Structures are given as structure tokens and as C-alpha cells.
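Below is the record:
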Amino acid sequence: MAEGYLAVVLHAHLPYVHHPESEKYLEERWLFEAITETYIPLLQVYKGLIQDGVDFRVTMSITPTLAAMLADEMLQERYATHLSRLIELAEKEVRRTKDMPEFYPLARQYWGKFLKIQEFYLRYKKNLLTAFREIQDAGKLEIITCAATHAFLPLIWSEEALRAQIATAVLQHTVLFGKAPRGIWLPECGYTPMVDGVLKEYGIDFFFVDSHGVLTAEPTPVQGTLSPVVTPNGIAAFARDEESAKQVWSAVEGYPGDFDYREYYRDIGYDLDDEYVKPYIHPEGIRVNTGIKYYRITGKGDHKEPYHFSAAAHKAAEHAGNFMFNREKQVKYHASRMNRLPIVVAPYDAELFGHWWYEGPVFLDMLFRKIFFDSKTIEAITPSEYLDLYPDYQVCQLPMSSWGRDGYADVWLRGENDWIYPALHMAEQRMIELANRHFHVDGSEKGLTERALKQAARELMLAESSDFAFIMDSKTMVDYAVKRTKHHINRFSQLYEMIQQDQVDEQWLSSLEELDNLFPDIDYQVYQSRYPVMRYEAKPALRILMLSWEFPPLTIGGLSRHVYDLSRYLVKQGVEVHVLTMSVEGYPDNEIVDGVHVHRVHVMKPDGAEFIHYIFQLNLMMVDACQTLIHSGLRFDLVHAHDWLVADAGEAIKHLYDLPLIATIHATEHGRNHGLHTDLQHQIHHQEWELTYEAWRVIVCSQYMQREVETIFQLPHDKVHVLPNGVDPQLLDAKQVEDLDRARYAHPDEPIVLFVGRLVREKGVHILLEAAPLILSEYAHCKFVIVGAGPMETELRYLANRQGIVNSVQFTGFVSDEERNYLLHVADIAAFPSLYEPFGIVALEAMAAGTPVVVSDVGGLADVVAHERNGLKMYAGDPQSLANQVKVMLQNREGAKTLAETALAEIGRYDWNNIAYETLKIYQGILAEKDSLETPLQVATGSC
């Protein structure tokens, strides 16, 4: 049995080059050279291994753009012509070198090779995808996908555009290869946490990152890079092995630099007389590579000796043996230190093998043969096969990373290419706008408008190709890269205007469809926001600065989720939102999350009585961060502060930059504690009052909270706006909820009464536990599941023990969103016996999951639930009242179901699209009032 595994991964990719208008584009030769020198030679190696009974495994990503070109009939015919001319040139070379013994055998070899390539190409009727699929179906090759147009995902602005890249790729792959891909090659190994959920949505099981992408994960991977880790969404991340990479890629130590190998840069297209090669190079006389090369590397100087393929092939076999030997030693060393067999992941650009390193296919051929016949230490494997070996892999949070220079996007975001991103991001926003507006295309729109929408999606995706930014950085074909980027953006912009004005030029559209004709089955609707905008009207662009001490992944309470949802839905309304928040270890200081610009500030963590001092330091850092943003050229229209923890920063920024201040009060210290009893409570209360005093408007989540803040802060009625919290019904849709085992919580005949929330006194969990014996007296098999964590957990466990109901109560502690959503679905009743509740969003989530609710008749819960219409209410703090309502639901299951159905039907009132829209109206109203003031001095008086 093997002691470890080797996964050879080849990334086959070329940017989409398709020019039906002319055969003079040099860039088409990228494809023709790769077919001749890499793709067909690799296929010949695979076929030879199968014919000889060699059991091997290799993984290849065939990118959607490359697959589209290989399947394109025009390019197939052009390649056939190119290959015929290459054979003709090789035949001429045989005649020319007849009296040149150092070159003649090689010329004959080229001629024979090209004839075999032609025979192979025609055998598969000019479609190499058929050959790749044949080897896939033989079980030797795992074909994985890539982003649709090889877009560098960390620099995509919106989740919608990222989803479009993945969805289009998976669809194209499934159509062409007959099965959905299990894996994906993230372009340039560019990982961003935003991609994680999208990969899960489209059934992707694994991806690859450079080694530092795993080694810098949180927590530190215990197996290092020789076993995958999984993301929070369960997607496996395989790390590139540095040792195997160095042996092939390194310019100093890599095998391809051996002096016996063929010299890439000496080609007869440059070496021979112009008249002789003229029919085989560019029509305008531009010298190009023909693929016929007669010299070996020889040494570092200009002098080159003739190339001998037999000697080079022998050297490739030696290198294959050396590579296998090193992997065996590597596996033996690590196997004793791991609790599983290690996997060495060796990923390379496929075009290295044959195109850049002529002997590369021979190397792979010999490597697989040596492993099969000679090695008892390692076996070749695919990532999918390795994942199936073990049931558990360490869960880690991976940071943003890439391969390439410096490992963090440096190649794709520099002075040479950074100008493309504002245009790309604007196009993303416009494409989302079009998809949202044309949610259902029917009637007169079906046809021309739908074609235009599809073509707009193609043009945007093509503009996003990472190849163009890479070319600009490497300074090779810069003019072509710039031209292609501008052409696609300009085409998209013209399509956008035509669709907006309902004046699509069909003749011009047809010409675009011929030029940029990839992805015939493209679905432009993947650009739709998950929750399409309910109202659509032109709005002025606004830039908002939002302050919140918590933001995902930092989640202490409901504030984090509120700010996240509000900010990302404001983005969908066309607002540019910047959130200042606290740093989180393992997460970047600056990133874009679902279109929201998140800026995290560093401050020492609080320690007991130092909490107030910590909050003061946090506010100072927020002000500094705001100054940095403004000095960088940003100008904000207003600042929106959430709760007292950011009050000082909100006030300072308001006065420093003459900005209107809006405050959202999520809860008050007075309400939480039913009065003010300590110095700390009085201090927090004063901070809350000062924030509401300085704010131009105050937003609260319920009528109850409006009455509370107007009373305790003495606010005028017209200064306070009520906007409820929102809920995402689709996140709680049964189709989106992971299927877990209900038996973990209760037997099939045991009804579940569920509580979800922080274990603090104001949530009333103790009331539920005191009511439990009263319920169990009639429904002895009832199970009470308490989900959440908090300072009262020990006290609550003691209470359950004292009540004698330990066997009927399960404390789950903190659970993932997936598990919480599952429990909301399978529970028979969700109970929220709060003593104080400004809104009660978790009750809304239970209603969205279709679960009947019992809530206290307090605070925002009283606004959300109408007794005996969409739920039942209890008297706050009364265990008997809670027990009565739960027993009513258990006794009358049909009645409870009716309540739940009514609640679900009315949940649209809490759609985040509407809440963001109403928030935007408040912003616009404030700015209109500000503009009407005679002097800026009036803005800062605090009396508005």
C-alpha cells in the first residue's frame, strides 16, 4: 500500500481570441501553438498510457474560454489550415537539411510529428474536447473548471458578478463534458472569502491556492500543506506544494533549464531567410515562432549547439525518476507526522509541458510509468479521490491570496493596470441593474432585448479576463490587452444605453454576436440580485460612511447582521457604502464584501473594567481611519452611526467634515436594565443621549423603540423614524437549508420547542425553563432545544437540573448559521419569552422558516406578532402564560400551521430591499434639508 499520493494538476488556459473579421491576428497563434505543442501531445501521452495498461491519474482544468475556442468551428478550420502549412514547412525543411546531418534527423522528426498530430486531430473530427472527454470517461483524467473568463476573483466588485463567473463556467463545463465539475481552478489561484458560498451553491468540492494561502489560515492547519483544509462552507482547499513547484518552475533549479533540452528562443521563423519563411509567418512579414527549432539550451550564453531529441528524452526520463524519488522522500518524511496519508499537490500551467518545455510531455509520460511500475511509496491520485478517503478535514478561515509576485494580487493591481477596475466595477453595477430590471423577459422584449442582455453579459465577462491585466503588467502585448479591455467595456456600455432606451440596433448586435460568440447558453439572469429591487427609479449616487463596532465575521449580537444586510442592500440601491469597524484576526484591514467597502481598525481588546477606555480608543482609531480615507480623495455625503459604541467617532466626523449624522439606536441601556442602577449604566446612557442629540435623524426598529427613545432621550417626534429589521426569506427557504439529522435533537415522536438567542437575562430563557415542567406535565415527550451562548449558560443549566428536566433540555451552545436555520425548520414551536426586545429578528426568521412562534408581548415583538393571527403572545415574565400558549399549539397542530402560514405570507413586509429603499429616502431627505440651509454653521448646532 502506498504511503502517500501525488496529484499532478495542469491548468490549461488561454484567453478568448476570436476574430472572424480577419486572419491577421497574431494572438490566434497562441491557440494554434498550444494545440500543436501541448494539448495534442498530452492527449497522445494519455492515450499511450492507457494502451500500455498504465494506471495513472491526472487533473486538468480546461477553462471555459479555452473550451469555447476548441469547440469553435471557425477556429477549428483555421487550425487545420495552420497545421497543413506547418506540415508543408516541415517537408521543405527535410529537403533543405538533407545535407546537414546535425539537423536532418530532427527535421524528419518534426515532419513525422506534425503528420501524427494532423492524423490525431482529424480522427476526433477537429474537436479535441471529444478526446479529453474520452479519457475522462476512462477514469484517468479529472477535468475541472475555472471562472468563465478567467477573471481575477478577488478584484471583482459584487457577489452577483462573481456568481455569474462561476455559474456560467459550471453550465458550460456540464454541457461540454457531460458532468458537473467537482473542482475549480481559481484564476491565478486568487482566493477571496466572498467566493466560498458561491462555490458551495454550484456544487464545487475543492479548489487550489498557493501554499501561503493555507499556511496563513486561521487556525493554523495541523497537517500543513500535505492535506487539504475545508472552508466554513465545507469546500476543500488544496495547497500548491513548494518543493515540487521549485523543481519544475524555478529558473535556477528547475528541470526545463537543463542544457540538453530544446532552446525555446531559437526558431527558424526568426533564423532563416525572410523569403523562405515568408509564407509561414504573419502575412505582413512579422517574424513569429513556427515551432521548428534546431538548438538545445547548451549554456547561458548566446552560443547554441544542435538539439538531439533522443538525448533530451533520456534526460527527461532521468528527471522524472528524480522527481518521483524526491516525492517519495517527502511523503515518507511527513507520513509519520500525520494522522493520514499525505498528498503532494503539484499544479502547473499545462502550456509549460510541450510549448515552453518541449520535453514536458515525455517527462509526464515517464513519471506516470515509473510511479506505476517502480514505486511502492506513492500513487497518482485526483483531488476528488483523495477527498473521498477521509470523512474529516480541518475547518479553517482562509485569507485572500494569489500566486504570482508577492502572493497577494500584486501582478493584477498595479499602476500599469489599475485603471481598468473602476470601469469594470461600474459595468458590474450596470449589469446587475439590467438583470434586476429585466427580471422576466417576455412579450415584445423576448428576442432582441434578451439577445442584447446576453451579449452585455458576455462583453462584461470578457473584459474581466485576468489575462489582460497580466499582459499589461508583463509588458508583452500591451496594446492588444488595452484594446481588448476597452473594446469590451465600450461594447457593454453601448448595449447598456440601447437596452435602457429600448432602442437596440439589431444589425450592430448581430455583428457583436459573431465577434464575441462564446457561451451560447449564457444566462444573464445570474446577475440578478438574490432579492430583486422592488422599486426601480433613478437615484443620485451617494457615498455613505457607516460606523459599527461589529461587522461579520465579528458577531456579538444582532447589530452585526443588521449592518451587513443594510449596507449590502444599500449598495444594490446604487449607494456606495464604506463601513468602519473593528479588526478581526485573519481578515484584511480593507476589503470589499458584497459590494460594501469594509475598513477594519486595530485596537487592543477590552479587559473587564477597561471596556469604556477600549471603546474610546476604538472611536479614536475610527476617526483616524476616516481622515485617511478622506485624504485619499474620498468625499462622503453623510455618516451613519450604529449605537453608542461609535458615538464619539460619529460626532467628531460630523463636525470635522460638516457631514449630517444619522444614528440607529438598536437598544438602550435603560431598557436592557429596566432603569439605570450603576455608574457604568449612567455613563452609557449619557453616550446614547449625546448620539441622539447630535444626530440629524434617529432610526429605530419598532414603534416600541420609538416611544422609548422619545421618552428617555426627550426627542421630538419628527426626529425619529421607524424602520424594521429585515429578513432574507430565501436564506431560510427549505431548499437552501442543509439537511442535518433531526435525531441529534429529538426522537421522531418528540415535538421540539426551540429558543435561539443570547443567554442573557433580558431574553427570558429562564422563563422558558420554568414553564417547561408545566408543559411536560401534559406533553411528557416534549424536547426543549436552547441554541446560543452567553453569561447565563451555567445558571440556566443549574436551573434545568433543579427543575428535574435535564433529560428534556438540550443546550447546543453557539451553532453555525446552517444548523440554526435547520433547527428553525424542524422545530414544532419557536418560543421567545423576552423581558426586553427592541425588535426580535430571530422571531422573524422563525416565521420565515414556516415555524409557529410564541413571543412575549413586549417591545418590537409586539409589533411583529399579532395574537392568534400570525403567532401567539404571552405575558412577559409569566411562565404559566408561556406554558398555556405552547400547549395550545401542541394541542391544535392545524391551528398552529395556519398561524405559521399567515406569518410566512406576510414576511414580505420585512424585505431588506424595501428597508434599504426607505433608508435611502431618509438620506436623501436629510441632504435636501441640508442643501436648503443658508449656512453650514446650522448643520453642526446639534439641534436639528
Summary: Confidence is low (pLDDT under 50) at residues 531-540, 934-944. DSSP finds 33 helices and 23 strands in the chain. The first strand starts at residue 4 and ends at 12. Residues 749-910 form a domain with the Rossmann fold fold (CATH 3.40.50.2000).
